[in-house]
Amino acid sequence: MRPLLTVLLLSAPAAAASLSSSFTVPGHALGSFGQPESATEELGGGAAWSADGAQVYTLDTTRVLNHWRVGDGVLLGTRRLAPPAALPDAGPWPTTALRLNGAQGGALQLEARGFRQGQPAALSYTLKLQGGASAPPPPCPSSRRVPQVCAGGAVLRAEGRTLTWTAGGVTRTRTLPASGQPIALALNPGGTQAALLVVEPQAEWGRHGRAALLLWAGDSLRRLSLGPVLSGTAARLNWTPAGWLLAAPLYDDQTGGVQPGEWLSLHGPDGERRWQLSPDAGLRGLWPSPDGQRFVTFRGGSVPEVRRTVDGTLVRGLGEAVAAAVPLTGQRALLALQGGGGAGRVARLEQGSLRTLSPLGATALAAHPDGGRFAAAQGQDVRLHGPRGEVLRRWKAPAPVVALAFTPDGQALSAWTQSEARGQVLAWRLNGTPLPLPAGTVFPLSSVALAVTGDQGGPQQTHRERLSAQQPGGPAQWQTPWRRGSLSVWPAGDGRSAALWSQHPNSQSDPVITQFWRVALQSGQPGPALNMAPTTRDPNSGWTLAALRGDGRRALLQESTGDGCGWGLYGFALADLFTAQRLPTPPGLGSGYARRGGCGFDVPLPQTTFDPDGRLVVQDGNRLDWWTFAQGVVPPAPAGNRGEP
After folding, report:
1. Are 604 and 29 in contact (CB under 8 A)?
2. Tell me, what's the pLDDT at 229?
3. Is 536 helix (H, G, I), strand (E, B) or coil?
4. N or C: the chain end with fewer CB closer than 10 Å?
């Protein structure tokens, strides 16, 4: 698969930063099809096949439509869709979700779900593949309240507990038991056979319940118990020549929600189960090919997979998702990629192409200061790799690893781990032996161990925190005064300083002002403070640190918001922490990455970092952007504040 490389050269006058290059890995961004965070959340986007079964279209929650050739998995094209004018986005954030419901006659069948005049609304329509114009809506509309399917002139409809099947001029009606809840309907192409997936909720599971497959032929309605406890949300049920394919969300009795993967299975015409894929695989949804020989599903909300219907085995994945990216010198990078079938690899991006270093997957990466070795982690497995990708050493962490970082001297590796109970920072020497760290140590470990401690004190008994520094296993070297509220820390890559930020001590009401400053790691001496007020009226918005250059001077600040429903990114701003001044920020960087996520929109949050050459790298899903800074735009550091204060 040939990566897509676009080099963007800007001829505008020198600014604080300019976009110098961009690289995109073919595929969808990690998690961009959504995850089952609640029992009511459905899989985003979807898939559709061409009439000859040679091509597949996949659509994610970011409204990116990818066009694939099934025979070899090559990406043929990409476009970003917009919602129909009759159901537009309301306000600055996306509020309309698009879903693929098939393809027919050179057009894609879509459904848009959003709001009209403040009320939930749905609209079915088609999109012509040539020209992108809208066409009349497809027949047989379905809704959440009244699902129905049509085939061969027949219509199968469920309204409440009443089932209606009209075929060959004959209408048959059945009434489900009081506890029966249909969550998926299907007809064979001729409309002579019908199937329903039903959930029968029980008191101990609330609206979750036992699954049953109802097979309807003529006047006979046969019920087959499937066994698992399913969530009462929408599922997919499809007819194929091999039998009935279904995908349904599975109830998780440990969390009370739904499992990450769905129940995928094939049932013969008599209802007998031919195969079933474990929910642990993380597969969700299915879309059969026109001939029913293959189907598309999604792994981990990220990677489309083509599988055989007859046995459920993998044919191939379509593209890859970037799980982690670490920039190197010379606009190169290490990438952890996730592919089809659960496969993964670590590759090096260099001169516009990817070269595999390790066939082992990873969800966290770190580059050693020597520029050759690197560390990778997947789950609790931690590995140290050599320059050619060979595994030099590996060990187990006590909990899944979320992030990795080497210390500035390259002698130790620190990790941020996350268990169900809490997060924790761990560190090891490169031989795998653990390093002792004080309670409250922040990630990543630097030339000293920085720890944040808090208590309930002060005149108003308010929560307050302070920062201390020590050598691992040694006494405290220094500590800051107490500050009201939370205190956040980001060590610089050279191990000489760290950036701190906290709510302004005199900020008692909205807007909440965030204060940023710098401290020397060996002495704890602070520099001047930069105060940043929100630019919006959003009561949940505020500024945080998004990236810090290796020398601890240039910083990228991020204005964002978040509540119980979702999150939003308003934009970025450049700052000089030596002089406590904002720097000119080009619009493409300042507001070009703004978006909202959550609440039905599982869009990627941009990840930002500075590379060893001082360039800013923004990972936006599967795309990496390099921003280069012009010389002479950063004010000189005042006397007494150069290097170590």
Report:
1. yes
2. 72
3. coil
4. N
C-alpha to C-alpha distances, 238 to 44, 420, 581, nearest whole angstrom: 18, 36, 60
Q: What is the distance between the alpha carbons of residues 164 and 82, in angstroms, rounded to a whole number?
A: 35
Q: What is the DSSP letter of 596?
A: E
**pLDDT over 80 (residue 634):** no
Q: Does residue 635 have a cis bond before it (omega within 30 degrees)? A: no
Find out whether 586 and 579 touch, Cβ atoms under 8 Å. no
CA torsion through residues 407, 413, 418, 424, sign: negative
Q: Please measure the distance between the N-terminal and C-terminal CA atoms of the chain and give it in whole angstroms.
A: 51
Contacts of 88 (CB under 8 A, 6+ apart): 96, 114
Question: pTM for this one?
Answer: 0.90
d(CA 532, CA 585): 15
pLDDT of amino acid 600: 65
Amino acid at 644: E
How far apart, in whole angstroms, are the C-alpha atoms of residue 508 and residue 490? 25
Q: Which domains does the chain have, with CATH numbers?
A: 1-26+486-645 (no CATH), 27-317 (2.130.10)
pLDDT digits (tens, 9 = 90+) for 338-356: 999 999 999 999 999 999 9
Locus of tokens 């090891």: 428
Nearby residues of 418 by Cβ (< 8 Å), 6 or more positions away: 399, 400, 402, 424
Nearest to 362 by CA among 318, 405, 412, 322: 322
Mean pLDDT across the chain: 87
Q: Give Cβ neighbours of residue 377 (< 8 Å, ≥ 6 apart).
A: 362, 363, 364, 365, 383, 397, 401, 404, 415
Say if residue 230's pLDDT is above 90.
no
Lowest-pLDDT range of 17-26, 88-97, 258-267: 88-97
Lowest mean pLDDT among 95-99, 150-154, 253-257, 626-630: 253-257
Cα–Cα distances in angstroms (integers) from residue 226 to residues 209, 223, 243, 250, 548, in the given order? 11, 10, 15, 12, 54
Q: Which residue has the tokens 């992108």?
A: 132
